[in-house]
Specification:
Layout: E1 4-10, H1 14-25, E2 32-38, H2 45-51, E3 58-61, H3 67-77, E4 82-85, E5 91-92, H4 97-102, E6 110-119, E7 123-127, H5 135-140, E8 148-151, H6 154-157, H7 169-180, E9 185-196, H8 206-221, H9 223-236, H10 240-256
Helix pairs in contact: 1-2
């Protein structure tokens, strides 16, 4: 079995970090290393890490330049064949999550599944993902980093996370990997992890930042693809008024010929 590196990034979220750690070390499958990259937290996060340090493959608590800088540090210090980014507060589906997925880690570059999304601990739903990935999919969506096993060598081929981006560097990585480098991928139709919608990508003015960052990447790196996507989108959406008039004309002709009757 290929070895797995699980990387958790944390900043001032001691309770969430403890939940994530407990989830990881409750796994039946044990052939993994666990790394925690803490951004110099001022709460009790460091104490939580130190209590578990004997079980960690690597950890650090130091100032960083943001989430993706911390994730890149985790990549540098990982030794696994596949990497899974399970950030502070999120957790694996249950104690059999890694065991279920291990058999699918067959050398494919990216193996991804579904996530259980939880909003305010009240609403929950499963985030499903398609078997076939296209440029159009990435215009609007992305793969879930908490449910995606990424071959470590892919970061040498595609590059590390873009630290100039605040929220969308993992989206950019997946976009480039699939649409530019044509990497292999596989979808596993089962829930892998539980993702709480209270992180940086889900709160405040994050949506405006996401749209700005994605638009910047697409216009700079994929202008032709973006133009084709927009033209295809316009083609697929017929104008409502002419479409309604066409239906009325068809119904009128059918009634006139006695094929349909007024109800």
């Amino acid at each position: 079995m290929p070895k797995i590196s699980i990387i958790t990034v944390n900043l001032n979220n001691a309770n969430g970090l403890e939940r994530t750690i407990n989830s990881v070390f409750s796994q039946k499958f044990t052939d993994f290393e666990y790394l925690i990259m803490d951004g110099g937290s001022t709460d009790s996060s460091k104490e939580v890490i130190e209590r578990n340090s004997y079980r960690l493959g690597y950890w650090a608590s130091e100032n960083d330049a943001g989430i993706y800088n911390a994730m890149n540090k985790g990549i540098y210090n990982s030794k696994g064949d596949y990497l899974l980014f399970l950030n502070s507060g999120d957790h694996l589906r249950d104690d059999a999550a890694l065991e279920d997925l291990a058999a699918y880690l067959d050398g494919t570059d990216i193996i991804y599944g579904n996530t259980l999304l939880i909003e305010s601990n009240i609403k929950s739903w499963i985030g499903h993902h398609p078997e076939i990935l296209t440029f159009s999919f990435f215009v609007d969506c992305t793969l879930p980093h908490a449910a995606s096993f990424i071959k470590r060598s892919l970061f040498d081929q595609v590059g590390l996370y873009d630290e100039n981006l605040v929220i969308c560097a993992d989206w950019k990585f997946f976009l480039n990997a699939v649409c530019r480098y044509n990497v292999t991928y596989k979808f596993v139709d089962r829930v892998i992890s539980v993702f709480y919608l209270d992180g940086i990508s889900s709160t405040g003015n994050s949506q405006a930042i996401i749209e700005k960052e994605k638009a910047s990447v697409l216009k700079k790196d994929y202008p032709l693809f973006l133009q084709m996507h927009e033209e295809l989108s316009r083609y697929k959406k017929p104008k409502k008024e002419p479409f309604k008039k066409m239906i009325i004309r068809i119904k009128y002709r059918l009634r006139r010929h006695g094929i349909i009757k007024e109800v």
